[in-house]
Amino acid sequence: MNPAPPDPARPRRAIAIIGGGSIGVAFAIVFARAGHEVRLSEPDAGRRAAIGGILAARLGDLDRYGLVDEPIEAVIGRVELADSHARAVAGAAYVQECAPERLDLKTALFAELVRLAPEDAVLASASSAITASAFAAGLPGRERMLVVHPGNPPFLIPVAEVVPAPFTAEASIAFTQELLAGAGLTPVLIRKEVEGFVFNRLQGALLREAYCLVRDGVVSVEDVDRIVRDGLGLRWSVIGPFETVDLNTSGGIASHAVKMGPAYARMGAERGQHDPWTPDLVEKVAGERRAVLPLEQWAERVAWRDRRLMSLVRHRKTEADA
Fold it and tell me: Is residue 148 located within the same domain as residue 37?
């Protein structure tokens, strides 16, 4: 998804990015492509010297696939490599921290950002698992701090988990969601802090089972990847896991829970897990699905799913034949 073209009549304050690793550079592309001035701070001189070439290479690839709406030089021109955190955050409206996943580092870094950044700047961490409550609870101005966990790379995978702490102000949450959406991302508000948020908990559930299946001699590593790549993943690129089982079963997700719930419970018990799909939970999930898709529209949606998969299969075949 390309972001909306920038409105030249609307003044914008800069976006600061702290950390020039792969995620920091990717965020720089996201915001610069959306028309924002970006200041990126990277303390390692060697890495800082490499960032210009990395930006040009990534944007060149995006341009070849029609995912940049202007000359890439214009996008690169919006990214300044700042020589200090102080320079990066000066006057910024939003600060995206992209430092390594260490609690001590993030705590110290956010304490520094509180001193350096404007008092109204929102301070967000790209943490993959550490919550804002863990690194910001004792800091002044904590009401403007939260986590924004992106898919990797965010210039291709648009979902971004917005994870506030209980102390994060509603205004900070709303500003962040609007900013991300305007940059072409898909912000998803996570309503409660949990380690790993939602993206990594879902990914982790699949990885835990995959490791167990390899350990137990059930399947090879390559065949696990093949099953996901050519099976689950193909379908999940069109619809999510709840809609998948909803459309796979005549009568929808409530019928699926009756037919398959006991088998899934036995599979979970093999791994020491006891999280049954209770009738009230199934009713809640089914109610949310039926609010989105009434059963009378079920067959039409199944046909839509199949056409989308046909498009993907055709694309894969075309790429393979090229």
Answer: yes
Look-up of token digits 């529209």:
297
Residue 63, burial from CB neighbour count under 10 angstroms (0-12, 13-18, 19+)? middle
Closest Cα to residue 96, out of 48, 181, 26, 5?
A: 26
Q: Residue 161's beta-bridge partner residues?
A: 149, 188
Domain boundary among 137, 159, 189: 189
Domain residues for the domain of 214 are: 199-321
Model confidence at 36, pLDDT cuts 50, 70, 90, reads very high
**Residue 11 CA to its chain's centroid (Å):** 27
CA 218 – CA 88 distance, rounded (Å) = 51
User: For residue 194, what are the CA distances in angstroms to 131, 146, 307?
Assistant: 7, 13, 37
Query: Which residue type sits at 192?
Result: K
Model pTM?
0.91
For residue 292, how many other CB atoms are within 10 A of its CB? 11
* 291 and 245 in a common domain: yes
Runs of H (alpha helix) within the chain: 22-33, 45-64, 72-76, 85-89, 103-116, 132-136, 170-182, 199-215, 221-227, 233-236, 241-248, 252-270, 279-292, 298-321
Report pLDDT digits (tens) over 247-293.
999 999 999 999 999 999 999 999 999 999 999 999 999 999 999 99
186 SS3 class: strand
* Sheet strands side by side (includes 15-18): 79-82, 38-41, 15-18, 94-97, 122-125, 145-150, 159-164, 186-189
Tens of pLDDT, residues 233-259: 999 999 999 999 999 999 999 999 999
